[in-house]
Structure formats: structure tokens, C-alpha cells
């Protein structure tokens, strides 16, 4: 598959199909939407890539017989056709409701040069020719789908091409002979080219594009704990003005994947068309991430004796903290928040190096969250801003005691050590289902009930 064809394939379908598996009957964690403005841009950029690719095409040779009074019968051959110039002037990529996409190219021009030869009895003559193909129109309908593995599929459901005019200029010895049946040659040229265009389109989709789509990775690895499954949950849904792609968008531990006990919510997307693409990212995405990191013990911590000696000089203490459950991110219009619950257990370190539990604390806090889109990395990033924690003594083996000193210590540790580590992680962000060489700009971020709505324009970075 040529570099330009691959680029065109990525641009035309990668944006629209993105990625992979999912259970039927469940809601997507993420919906990627490309609007009519986005399709218009993709068609325009695709035309540039296609025009470049046309110079690589080998046009077919063709032969014919002729009969001229007083000359007799002979045979001609046109061969070694090379495209010297082409202009693809108009293109459109439009959704076909319930099916997929329609790609049309119109009012285009191709100029090619080649060689001819004529055989008459023992006589062989040859020369060169120019051919101008004017008013080229191509209409291709693409049926988009998904396979059981979750990878996207594409096939050509129909193709038609039309050439308004073919002008052949023949030069060389006895070129006048071929000019005697000039109209016959031009008519044959037109029929062959019209047939060849759709044959090449069908071959490109079947032999190049579809096999390439089957090589797309199923998941994206985030770090040593987590990966994200950008699964196509069903075939892309086309309406009159847009194309929606439903993705699973579930975080999972790539060492051992466990079923998720909750479902993604139903998302009612706003009818907006000002940007080229939109991403509706439900709380399911963030909460499956929280679940993975919680199960991996990412937020577990230990405060050892050297931190506590000044507060409790007569005891060798160690505090071990962990979240009671994975904190869930709550979405409400214009606001994101969490209410993590933590449990801290204190141990006395005995001379035998064993640990004796002595008391247990419950820790609660409210956390506000901020999400932003980093245009330079095409990643969604976050930042947590916690309030001061509230500590409650839940169990003690040496009676009730004042927890204010512990509360102050824990506030200092959590606000200055634990959350900065989490925020460092969040600033690295997680990737959206974008392709290489596609960059988003001019983003607009909205917070709705149960989902985040990101709109942006796209730019194809040529390499």
C-alpha cells in the first residue's frame, strides 16, 4: 500500500471508524462524532492525497483492429500511458443514513501521454500521443461496519464513473492513419477508463484499505497498570449531517482484566455542528480508570516512624492508608467532583519486627476536579483540588484520644505529597481515539450530566 494511499485511508476512514470489541446492548463510554464540516475537510484533504497518488497509477494498454478502404485491415496498440498532469477540482464526503459514506469527485481533468504502434502485414509503425480526459466524475458509496473482533470494516457498495470528453492527439509517421478513426479510439478510451476507475477503487478498498483496517491495534496502553479499550460497539451510525462512532472506552488492568460491575450511562448529545468533530466522554471512562488504579493499590500509602516521631516520640508507629473503594467522578452541569473515602490503620512496631494494630481512622474529603484538553499532545488532562480532610476515630485499643494532631499531619501529607503525585499522573493525560498526523485545535469543553462534551476542529499534519 503506497504512502499516499495509506495517508488517504487514514484520513478518510480512520477518523470515522477509529477502534474496536464490545458487548451488544450496552451503552458506549465514548461517542466520536464527525459533522458535515469535518467531512468536508476530510474530503478536501483526501483529494490532495488522491491527486498525488494518481501519478503512481499505471493506465492499461489497449488494442484494436481497423479496416480502411484501399488500405485493408490492421491492428493498433496504445501503451506506456503515464499521467503527466491531473486536477481534481471538486469533492464531497456525505453520510448515507443507515449505511455509511458517499464519496464523490467531480469536474476533474487528467492529461496523459503514451505511445502507439500499428501493424499492417509486415509493416510496423509507431509514434506518440497525448490524451486529455475532461469532466471526470466518480461516485463511490462505502458501507461501514464492524466485525466480531471489534475492528472496523469497509466495503464498496456501489461505484460509478463518467467521463464527459476524451481528446486524443496522435503524432508520428502515419499518425494520420489513426486519425481516420479518431472517434472510435476516443470512444474506446472513454469506456476503458470509466471501467478501470471503478475497478481500481474496488481493488483499493478490498486489497489495501480493508486489510489495513484489520491491522489496527485493539487497545492503547496507558502505563504499567492500565490500558484502554477503544472498542467499536456497533457499526458507525450515519445521519443526514453527521457520523457517530460508538466506542467502548473502558480502562482495564492489562495484566488481568476483570468485568466492570457498572454500566455506561445513556448520553443525550447536544445538536451542535460548529466544530468538525465532537467527543462525548461519559463518566464510565473515568470511573473504570479509577477502578483499575484502586485495584492496583496506586493510592495506597504508608507513613513511617520517621514522619511520626515528633508527634508521638514514645511510640514506633506506622500509618497505612488505602481508599475504601474506587472514588467515582460525579458529573453535573459545569462541575466535576469526587468524595473519596479513606481508611487509615495505625500499627505499633514491636521489637520482634511484627506489627500490632492499635487504632483505625476514617478519613473523608471532597475534591473538585478540572479537565482540560492539551492540543499539543491531543490528550485529555486533569487536575484535582482537594479540601481539607475530616478524620474520625473508628477503633482504638488504648481508648479515646484527640485526633487533631493526626488530622493535621494527614492533611499536610495528603495535600503536599499524595495529591501532587496524583496530579502529576493526571497531567500526562489519556489519549483520545485519534490517528497519527491528526491534530485537534480550537477546543471547546462542556460538562453535562454524566458526560464531558469536547468539540474541536481538525488539522491533518502532512509528513
From TrEMBL:
Q: Which GO terms describe its cellular component?
A: extracellular space
Q: Does the keyword Magnesium apply?
A: no
Q: Where is the Lipid-binding serum glycoprotein C-terminal domain?
A: 271-456
Q: What InterPro entries does UniProt report for this protein, alphabetically? A: Bactericidal_perm-incr_a/b_dom, BPI/LBP, BPI/LBP/Plunc, Lipid-bd_serum_glycop_C, Lipid-bd_serum_glycop_CS, Lipid-bd_serum_glycop_N
Does the UniProt entry include the keyword 4Fe-4S? no
Annotated Pfam families:
LBP_BPI_CETP, LBP_BPI_CETP_C
The record's keywords, sorted A to Z, are:
Antibiotic, Antimicrobial, Disulfide bond, Glycoprotein, Immunity, Innate immunity, Lipid transport, Secreted, Signal, Transport
- One example of a Gene Ontology biological process annotation: innate immune response
Q: Which residues form the Lipid-binding serum glycoprotein N-terminal domain?
A: 33-256
- Cysteine disulfide links: 159-198
Select a single GO molecular function from the record's annotations and give it. Answer: lipopolysaccharide binding
- Where is this chain primarily localised? secreted
Question: Which cellular compartments is it found in?
Answer: Secreted
- Signal peptide residues are 1-25
Subunit arrangement? When bound to LPS, interacts (via C-terminus) with soluble and membrane-bound CD14.
Its job: Plays a role in the innate immune response. Binds to the lipid A moiety of bacterial lipopolysaccharides (LPS), a glycolipid present in the outer membrane of all Gram-negative bacteria. Acts as an affinity enhancer for CD14, facilitating its association with LPS. Promotes the release of cytokines in response to bacterial lipopolysaccharide.
- Which family does the entry's similarity section mention? Belongs to the BPI/LBP/Plunc superfamily. BPI/LBP family.
Its recorded name reads Lipopolysaccharide-binding protein
Source organism per entry reads: Rhinolophus ferrumequinum (Greater horseshoe bat)
The organism's lineage is:
Eukaryota, Metazoa, Chordata, Craniata, Vertebrata
